[in-house]
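pasting for ref. prot 1 ->
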Amino acid sequence: MNIRYSLLIALVIILSVILLVLPEKKSTTEVSPKALLLELKEQTHYKSTDEVAERLINKDPSIFLIDVRMADAYFEYSLPGAENIPLEDILHPDWADYLDQSNRELIFFSNADVYAEQAWLLARRMGYENLYVMKGGLNEWFETIIQPTAPPETASNSEFDLYQFRKGASIYFCGGQSVVSDETIQEVVVMSRKKKKTVIEGGC
């Protein structure tokens, strides 16, 4: 047996061991446009701001938030623990492991629904699962969680219960301090962002 043949056998054995040791990469299967349209029609991919707020307050480890806005907007304000993946980069290979959340629910959000919906469509088309959109985005977040409106006196008990929850959530996320004006909210709400922590420190 010559040296060249021995080296070839040794190389094959080494490569085989490496392949056995390396973790298996999960492949995704593209979802058909018809299936996507059906999911969009059923609107089962939405999560309300109330649900997101409750799960953040309870420190639910089964959700993973992705802010699909540009980095400058993300660093001005985002939800606690959210990762920033701009829409234009959503299918870049570097983010594949972030989208492959088989054990967690991945929730996209933006200022409204449009960009988050596009991110959902692109990622879902590639076969990623457990994907959702926070309905209404940060605009809805500020209207319902940060500055909730009191229901009329004729409202049901469930409406008052929801309002009480939202008031408590507002205190939790804002530290009881006042928020920015309505004019600012209608455009882009700007808030100071410190180092990423489980809960945003300081006022809104």
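and prot 2 ->
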Amino acid sequence: MPKASEKAKKTATAMPKRLAAIRQKLVDQRQEILDMYENDLRIGQQSSDEASEDIVDRANNAYQREFMFSLSDTERKLVLQIEQALKRLDAGGYGVCDHCGEKIGAPRLKAIPWARYCIDCQEKEEQGSLE
């Protein structure tokens, strides 16, 4: 049976590796979103550059541009959340609920690595009752 000090050493080395893996996941996610945004922007510019005489084609192109811009807003917000998670990681506050200070569950962080709130506080936030 390993001694307590050996177990503490294993935990201490596992933590930086785990945090490095989380950091990489966040950085990769951010880059993926930025790449998608740049692609959407390129497609939007191409569709507005195409000379289309058909009113239906122009309406479709306008709708697609609006749709891409709305996605871009959502993606922008997600990039900001990811950047905030990276800051919490650097400051040592990653995995701690911004509202109540309790630990955020590992399954939640695995699913949403940029999560700011524990599941209880997130539910309150979505209901508009987080104080």
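The CA atoms of residues 23 and 75 lie 19 Å apart.
The two ends are 47 Å apart (CA to CA).
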